[in-house]
Amino acid sequence: MNNKNVLLVEDDEELQSLIIDFLKAYNYVCKGYSQPLEALKEFEENHFKYAIVILDLGLPKIDGFDLLKKLKKIKNIPIIISTARDDIGNKIYAFELGADDYLSKPYEPRELVLRIDATLKWYENDEELKVGELLIDLNKNSVFLENQEIEFTKIESEIFFMFVANNNKIISRKDIINQTSLKEDTKNRSIDMHVSNIRFKINDDTKEPRYIKSVWGIGYKFINNN
Prior knowledge:
The protein is an alpha/beta fold. The chain folds into 2 domains: about 5-125, Response regulator (Rossmann fold); about 130-220, Winged helix-like DNA-binding domain superfamily/Winged helix DNA-binding domain (Arc Repressor Mutant, subunit A). It is about 40% helix and about 20% strand. The strands form 3 sheets. It has a 5-stranded parallel beta sheet with strand order 2-1-3-4-5, with helices on both faces. A hairpin with a 4-residue loop joins strand 7 (about 135) and strand 8 (about 140-145). It starts with a strand and ends with a strand. The relative contact order is 0.10.
């Protein structure tokens, strides 16, 4: 496992500090936020950096369930709920929204580490995708064509893996700006240029696309019919 970056959303700053220090002892790099909207902004801008999210439910300004939905919409990242809400209704709802594990407070920090290890190991078992002639390594954010690794720029990589994470869904140009490190004033033609470069590198044909289909007036859709 190469990526050991953890995003922690926990408004109890004493507990947040304890978790960060404990994870550091197990070689995890944990960035903590007590304000959920700040954590959301960080994730929108840097979601590609993180391997997993640890999420409290009782948060100020926005409920943890709402934040969970927003995070999963940006990227299908593993999320472990860490909360004092221990009733079965909350647990079921969390799993229905896509949570991968649920820890009821109080718990031993060592248990959290074990849960993180287990969740990431499960994800690693299914982190290679074969799409047409492309082999996509989700763990390393690498793409191979005919056994040769494709050299994307940073922006190209962000856009491509955003497409992959939203398989067969229409992605607008506004979505691309909001969910990558492109600037807000980026013009549509600049986005189209990046996508055109990606198409060239993955040997895609704009007239008969196998991977990236243009959706007129809106944006793009990644095609995976495997």
